[in-house]
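== Sequence entry ==
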Amino acid sequence: MQLQKLEIKELGESPLTRFLHLSSVAVIMIGPLSCVCFASASIREKELKRRLFVCEMACTDYMTGLGLDRVLEKAREAAELPDVKQVVLYQCCTDFLTNLDYESYLRKYVNRKDLRFYTYQRGSASLNYTEKKSVTERMQEDAQKDGFELLPVEKLSGKAEMQEEIRIPDFVKVCGVLKNYPVLTCLFSPGSCTGAFSAAGEKESPWLYISRLEDTELVTGCSRQFADEAAKRADLLDTDKICLVGTPVTKILYMDFRQAGELLKKAGYRVLLFETDGYGSGRDAAEAAKQRIETLLKEETE
């Protein structure tokens, strides 16, 4: 997969662009590399880019709480824009699991008492999560209370130059290798990771299973459901070779991921676990995946 051949598409009417098209709103995009790299790169208009703050999180940021300070740094940058009156904290599936309270932290430490913060949880981990009022409804009500109108951007000021290098997440690289072999690839994911695939030019196929775990499964345990569905798909493809590939939630649900592999092995499948996590580009991940899968296939012929 060559970096220079990537074509980053505009997001169109995504929640991210809808928020950024409101002239008094800034967005802090929070998450691992796989959650922020392609979406942020797709925002090309200068006026929208000016109010988008990307906060790429490391796994340790979530585990230690350091992520609060990372987001605070971005919030202080947003607070320096005098026309910004509301800030949307655009969170990922890992935020749903770790539940860091960014809003309270920012209200305490950002030195602009007129600035309001709102949490928006993206990804299928939040699909069943509902509130009495949507984020935009609350933003509109608060705007009226604060004496201003929540208006769309009147005019976009042209495209910004693409300056940042787009790093492809490790699990996308690994899946890009595995698709060339007769194995079922199973991505342990709530499903929101599909955006990284489509932006990198990858497509779903019968040989690629993206689990799309629901929020209740993420919280209560999902190894059995994941393993059962993987086995069912492997049987339909008439293969006993299954590769389980990790995503950011695997760092939190590591035992579920490994247990799914053990369940499949006990059922007689030949299983390889790729403990990718989407936090880095994993330059060596693709080559390592190629070596492991070729070793597995070689053992079969000997």
Notes: The longest strand covers residues 25-31. Residues 12 and 162 are 18 Å apart (CA to CA). The beta strands are 25-31, 52-56, 86-91, 116-121, 184-187, 208-210, 241-245, 270-274.
